[in-house]
Design a protein that fits this description.
With about 160 residues, the chain is of the alpha+beta class. It has one domain: Aminopeptidase. It is built from 4 helices and 6 strands, in the order ααβββαβαββ. The protein has a 6-stranded mixed sheet. Strand 1 and strand 2 form a beta hairpin. It is globular and about 40 Å long.
Length: about 160
Amino acid sequence: MWSLGVRDYTPAQVTSVLKYAMGVDTQLIRDGTYFVVVEQASSRIVGAGGWSFRKLLHGGDGAKQPGDEAPLDPASDAARIRAFFVDPAHARRGIARMLLVLCESKARQAGFDRMELAATLTGVHLYRACGFEVIERVESTLPDGVRAALVRMSKRLA
């Protein structure tokens, strides 16, 4: 967020979003639906992202409300794209797109025909390029009173 997100968010918004909205969601790890991309030469993680069959659309463990971990019904609900991050030094090299393709494939295998996500303003361009359409722009007020926008997006899976 400090490298790429500052084009779309103020420093106060970046600080607040990082503190309250972008924590780790350990349920994704327990479900086996979170993936990392490792740079071979250094063994460093350069990208991460996942998908979920749970109700929560975005946020980490600290943002969860009762019922957020309830499973979704593939017949009526959209799977979630969750927690996509790419090391700024590795941005625009296809890492996020590769993770998206993997997540879409796994969601299709689980019976889902749609995906939904909450994009940062910075991520909207990537998701649009990958076939996601804007549903709505959502303005959130974080616990410290800072307001920040996210964009809810959706895609029908082939």
